[in-house]
Amino acid sequence: MTRSFCLTPILAIALLLGSRSAQAAVPVYGYKVVHVYPHDTDAYTEGLFYKDGYLYESTGEAGESTVRKVVLETGKVVQRHDVPSQYFGEGIVDWKNQLVQLTWQSQLGFVYDLDSFRQLRTFAYPGEGWALTRDDRRIYMSDGSAVLRILDPETLATIGSIMVTADDEPVTNLNELEWVKGELYANVWLTNRIARIDPATGHVLGWIDLSGLLDVSKLPDPGNDVLNGIAYDARHDRLFVTGKRWPKLFEIKLVKQHVP
Known about the structure:
This protein is mainly β. It is built from 1 helix and 22 strands. The longest helix is centred in the first third of the chain and has 15 residues, at 9-23. It is globular.
């Protein structure tokens, strides 16, 4: 026996408005530029973090990949390690007195001494490596999918995962990561957006729209020289963003824009 029913007009409208309200629950943030710093246009930025007054940056492209320690105010590289030419360098993160770096498709990562950039060991992982960040207990890794891996910071083995969704849909192309005030910030590759992610649920809590921050059409390779790079200075509450081969690195403040 099949049951059928009809919605009253009032109930139908209420359900429709409720659905729209649920879909419109993710707020969008704009930005205000606080300060502009120089950035090396040879740096194909894959990973970025701020520590003790310096930026640490990893750059990609086979044969050009590096790990760098950079003076924020001048963009000067004060320390550099060249990754072996067969590897395409990807994201980095610090853990204690070490620096961890991914490679793109080689399924191999490097662990360096943070002070000297001397290689200490390697580690393996399945699939691609895109980006890294951490909280006080765990390391988080992106691989270009909608799933963030959770790594044990001592062994670098995968111990969990987070499916990232917005409006109940997976958010793919998650790239450079940063831990900011209990949230995971993630560049969405080939877009001008950063997702603010709840690490407990994977839900996108907000979008940061960085449209207009830099006119990439004026860069040599606008299709590839895209937004990618987030760093946070927790002590002074400063948020920095940049892109691949961008001439500038921006300190920004978020501005509540609208709810789509």
